[in-house]
């Protein structure tokens, strides 16, 4: 703990590990600044996606994910340790690892790997909540302020970024945060970077899950969100009037399973011959419009009620172009600053885990999450 307190005075280099689902990711992030304006420089953020492995199964297979993480982790560590392992090791102040929520066999591979590494290097190890990672991804640097070379593609490994400079995202409070991923849909009211209240969550499917399931109904590959996003561009969002679940309820809860069923019935009622590419595009666009309508309207209502100065959007679904555009436009009319991470930090990545670990360090490691996998950890 004395070590952690000392680290507050200067920059802190965090080596973070993320293995909660189907992305193996390692990042090296330089962190500095107090809780009022934390700053991050993402030195490396390597994501090795397992999508091609899970795609034939239409979703993530936990044991395959575990096997792939085990295979990828040492490879990614070697990339992180370049060009000189001993100097990277010396610079690292602490190791951070996602402990939940997620698939437990997948989480354990990251935790075990992190424990071994931290013990070997004699560095402290911090357990991180994956959803806090998504939330704090809003504080990660924006590419438009970085004057750095384009990301370098590493064969089969995804993307490696170097020397990305940070910017205080100027997030003002009170803020409303919409956290939308494959497993969660959460609306948060934030009064500071460390104080928040969950206003509402999904009662059934998460937004990303609904995207994935509808994509599957349309015969699109996993993961479905980006596929629907792409196909929807060719369709008419007003072609089919799908329901907007929970929109008229005065609470901040969400529900997407009814909408998913409405899409299923619509597809069933069209006979297979009429399920042309054009029809599929109209379904994708209309479904996406329904999800976005609910997400945006509830977020706007919360922003008005709590007089938000900032609106934050994060989690994998925040990569959705239309959702970003609409929430951005609404934030403008509300005179609230709209914050969304760069695309690279929307879906799972370890840079966001490093950011969350640093926020935890600034709070004197007060959360102290146990270093064991917790599939159901909440915000
Ligand atoms: O945050 P994330 O990478 O993993 C979880 O923590 O769950 O989110 C993955 C989810 C998937 O359901 C995926 O389909 C969805 O995010 N997603 C999208 C888009 N990109 C990813 N959903 C809608 N539009 C996108 N462009
Ligand atoms: Zn995630």
Please explain how this structure is put together.
- The chain is of the alpha/beta class and 379 residues long.
- Helix content is 39%, strand content 19%.
- It has 12 helices and 12 strands.
- The chain has helices at residues 2-7, 51-54, 62-80, 85-91, 104-121, 130-136, 207-217, 224-232, 257-269, 277-305, 321-333, 351-362; strands at 12-18, 23-32, 39-49, 94-100, 125-129, 152-154, 158-160, 175-180, 185-190, 196-201, 310-314, 337-339.
- Strands 3-2-1-4-5 form a 5-stranded mixed sheet, sandwiched between helices. Strands 10-9-8-11-12 form a 5-stranded mixed sheet, with helices on both faces.
- β6 (152-154) and β7 (158-160) form a beta hairpin.
- α3 runs parallel beside α5 (104-121) and α10 packs parallel to α11.
- The chain is globular.
- Residues 144-168 have low confidence and may be disordered.
- 5'-O-[(R)-(carboxyoxy)(hydroxy)phosphoryl]adenosine binds at residues 21, 181-183, 208, 211-212, 223-226, 229, 315-317, 319-320, 347-348.
The gross shape turns out to be globular
> Can you write the helix and strand succession as a string?
HEEEHHHEHEHEEEEEHHHHEHEH
Helix content: 25-40%
- Gyration radius (Cα, Å) is 21 Å
Let me know the average pLDDT: 90
User: Beta fraction of the residues?
Assistant: 15-25%
Ends apart, CA distance between termini: 24 Å
* Strand order in space, largest sheet: 3-2-1-4-5
The small-molecule ligands in this entry are: 5'-O-[(R)-(carboxyoxy)(hydroxy)phosphoryl]adenosine, zinc ion
Residue ranges: pLDDT <50 for 5 or more in a row?
Answer: 144-168
Total beta strands:
12
Helix tally equals 12
The largest pleated sheet is described as:
5 strands, mixed
What structural class results from the helix and strand content? alpha/beta
């Amino acid at each position: 703990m004395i070590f952690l307190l000392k680290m507050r005075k200067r920059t802190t280099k965090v080596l973070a590990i993320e293995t909660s689902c189907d992305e193996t990711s390692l990042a090296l992030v330089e962190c500095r600044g107090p809780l009022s304006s934390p700053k991050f420089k993402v030195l490396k953020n390597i994501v090795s996606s397992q999508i091609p492995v899970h795609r034939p199964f239409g979703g993530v297979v936990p044991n395959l994910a575990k096997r792939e993480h085990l295979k990828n982790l040492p490879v990614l560590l070697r990339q992180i340790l370049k060009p000189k392992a001993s100097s990277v090791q010396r610079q690292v102040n602490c190791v951070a690892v996602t402990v939940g929520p997620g698939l437990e066999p997948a989480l354990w591979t990251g935790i075990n790997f992190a424990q071994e590494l931290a013990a070997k290097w004699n560095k402290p190890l911090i357990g991180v909540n994956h959803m806090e990672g998504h939330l704090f991804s809003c504080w990660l640097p924006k590419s438009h302020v970085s004057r750095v070379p384009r990301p370098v593609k590493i064969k089969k490994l995804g993307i490696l970024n170097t020397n990305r400079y940070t910017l205080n995202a100027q997030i003002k409070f009170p803020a409303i945060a919409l956290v939308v991923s494959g497993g969660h849909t959460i609306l948060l009211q934030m009064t500071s970077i460390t104080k928040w209240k969950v206003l509402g969550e999904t009662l059934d499917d998460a937004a990303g899950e609904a995207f994935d399931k509808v994509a599957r109904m349309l015969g699109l590959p996993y993961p479905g969100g980006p596929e629907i996003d792409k196909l929807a561009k060719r369709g008419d969002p007003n072609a089919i009037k799908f329901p907007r679940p929970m929109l008229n309820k005065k609470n901040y809860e969400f529900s997407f399973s009814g909408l998913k069923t409405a899409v299923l019935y619509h597809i069933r009622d069209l006979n297979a011959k009429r399920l042309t590419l054009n029809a599929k595009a109209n379904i994708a666009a209309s479904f996406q419009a329904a999800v976005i309508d609910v997400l945006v309207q509830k977020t706007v209502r919360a922003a008005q009620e709590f007089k938000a100065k900032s609106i934050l959007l994060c989690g994998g679904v925040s990569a959705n172009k239309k959702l970003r555009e609409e929430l951005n436009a609404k934030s403008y009319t509300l005179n609230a600053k709209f914050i969304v991470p760069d695309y690279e930090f929307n879906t799972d990545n370890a840079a966001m885990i490093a950011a969350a670990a640093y926020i935890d360090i600034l709070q004197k490691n007060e959360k102290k999450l146990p270093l064991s996998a917790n599939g159901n950890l909440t915000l």
